[in-house]
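Minutes, methods subgroup
Present: GH (chair), OT, SY

1. OT presented the first of two proteins processed in the latest run. Sequence and structure tokens recorded below as shown on screen.
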Amino acid sequence: MAALLMPRRNKGMRTRLGCLSHKSDSCSDFTAILPDKPNRALKRLSTEEATRWADSFDVLLSHKYGVAAFRAFLKTEFSEENLEFWLACEEFKKTRSTAKLVSKAHRIFEEFVDVQAPREVNIDFQTREATRKNLQEPSLTCFDQAQGKVHSLMEKDSYPRFLRSKMYLDLLSQSQRRLS
């Protein structure tokens, strides 16, 4: 009933929220979570590109819409912190200022790695402690071990489920229909 009272301009937000509130296999309106305007983004996304995401996890991560689709899928599984951590590490590696490097390193650690972090990633004790030690003298590689573990976890666990998900299969179907 509350959805009926919302202004029309919020329809996109309702669609996104509705999509994310369901299990990944029940979300068929993938366009709602694309980073650009859905119709324009879907027109730019070729069937070939979306199909290539199945070639490897790294191919998926190298594509803007692949990351957006995978993020939306992970949200339905309540595990988007893994991708967010991986992306934060990638951005961290681009840091050139030593002062910013230190503050960013501590921010990433506190948000994702520390025990009881708000978006704590699932890594083992040894990796967590090695990362903590690396923060004593932060460098561009201080998160490499933890990032590698999270990458491996997503690649072996979440990525195969994403490729089998209705969300991904619907996206492929939509992009193929657009070509017809």
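2. SY then presented the second protein from the same run.
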Amino acid sequence: MNSIKVKIAYVRKDKAPKLPQYATPGAAGVDLQASLDQELTIEPGQIVKIPTGLAIELPHAGVGAFVFARSGLASKYGLALANGVGVIDSDYRGEILVAVINQGSEPFVVKDGDRIAQMVFLPVFIGEFYLADQLDETGRGCGGFGSTGVS
């Protein structure tokens, strides 16, 4: 796997810093942990922003950090990211907050240190847009939303 240097600042001065950890040597995403003063109960249908206590500095504009749900929390408890995927731009310096929604039927309790999401670093390309009279033809054309079938 490729690696990049990511500078981290811990924004909570009242707690000992804890660097993010990869769960296994082959993990693509690094776990983000909740940084809480007390337990947080997320009711069904409720959206909350969970602080991580971390701020990062990406090495250059060609890299972005993307926050994804943890598969176990989503499949077992219905805890998903409220915005689908969190995008951390290379020039953002604030605390990483994870916006989650409880799509389950039961309240979900988050404790300090719980692994609540995962962050993946990916290359980012800046689009250089230009206006065209028409787009090139393809076999698919304008077909979308299930136009290619399910089997």
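Chair's summary of item 2: Helices lie at 71-77.
Next meeting: continue with the remaining queue.
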